[in-house]
């Protein structure tokens, strides 16, 4: 695919849950390389957008992935097309070992790249016999991201990967996603604007279930008035990532 053509192009995405409109027509482009950030205040609709893209909630509109319309496809069909998802709650199987969690993520007909996962996350190799439920929050996040990198996905979606993590672990996760993005595009939903500044080339901001802004990440984050208006934050230091700013709303 031409790198100037979005790998994922969302147009007019609407989600209706329990008779209530959550998304009112979201537009989102995810570049075919690097990191694209999805930002917004609490309740803006970021996680619902991701779930809508993946078909995990009822949706309408257009979701074109790798040149093909995917609205109407089941989630498992989208995953087989090469989308890896690390959810906000990490979604590890607590009663299974690290190795078993990874084995469950193997895609039929493919060759799982354990060497890549263990290179990025040596801790997972060391703890492969440990129950996932006994891992720290940071280790569980590494397992969640590791599963998405196992199958040579075309796109990785990471939803709030640093949520609840200690500053040192935030730095580690940032470094891993930076390395992963060298070979696979990443859609990053994140509160830590320092992480976004370091990783993202482009960003989309949601407000009240609609797209409020799309453009270069650096242009937005270097504009204090725009960050206050769109994200409700100003400049401040945030632990965990060098050059950090205050967190935006979820």
From TrEMBL:
Keywords: Amino-acid transport, ATP-binding, Nucleotide-binding, Transport. InterPro entries: AAA+_ATPase, ABC_transporter-like_ATP-bd, ABC_transporter-like_CS, BCAA_Transport_ATP-bd_LivF, P-loop_NTPase. GO terms for molecular function: ATP binding. Residues 8-233 form the ABC transporter domain. The keyword Transport applies. Belongs to the ABC transporter superfamily. This is ABC transporter ATP-binding protein.
């Amino acid at each position: 695919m031409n790198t100037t053509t979005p790998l994922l192009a969302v147009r007019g995405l609407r989600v209706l849950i329990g008779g209530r409109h959550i998304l009112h027509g979201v537009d989102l482009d995810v570049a075919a390389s690097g990191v694209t950030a999805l930002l917004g205040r609490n309740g803006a609709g970021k996680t619902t957008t991701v779930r809508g893209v993946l078909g995990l909630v009822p949706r309408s509109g257009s979701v074109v992935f790798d040149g093909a319309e995917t609205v109407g496809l089941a989630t498992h069909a989208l995953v087989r097309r090469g989308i890896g998802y690390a959810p906000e709650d990490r979604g590890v199987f607590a009663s299974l070992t690290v190795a078993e969690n990874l084995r469950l993520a193997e895609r039929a007909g493919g060759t799982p790249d354990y060497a890549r996962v263990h290179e990025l996350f040596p801790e997972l190799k060391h703890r492969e016999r440990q129950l996932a439920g006994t891992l720290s929050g940071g280790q569980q996040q590494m397992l969640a991201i590791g599963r998405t990198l196992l199958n040579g996905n075309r796109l990785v979606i990471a939803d709030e990967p640093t949520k609840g993590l200690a500053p040192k672990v935030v730095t580690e996760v940032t470094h891993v996603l930076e390395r992963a993005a060298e070979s696979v595009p990443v859609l990053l939903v994140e509160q830590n604007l320092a992480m976004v500044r370091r990783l993202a080339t482009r960003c989309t901001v949601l407000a009240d279930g609609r797209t409020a802004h799309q453009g270069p990440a650096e242009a937005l984050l270097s504009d204090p008035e725009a960050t206050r208006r769109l994200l409700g934050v100003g400049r401040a230091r945030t632990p965990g990532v060098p050059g950090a700013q205050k967190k935006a709303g979820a």
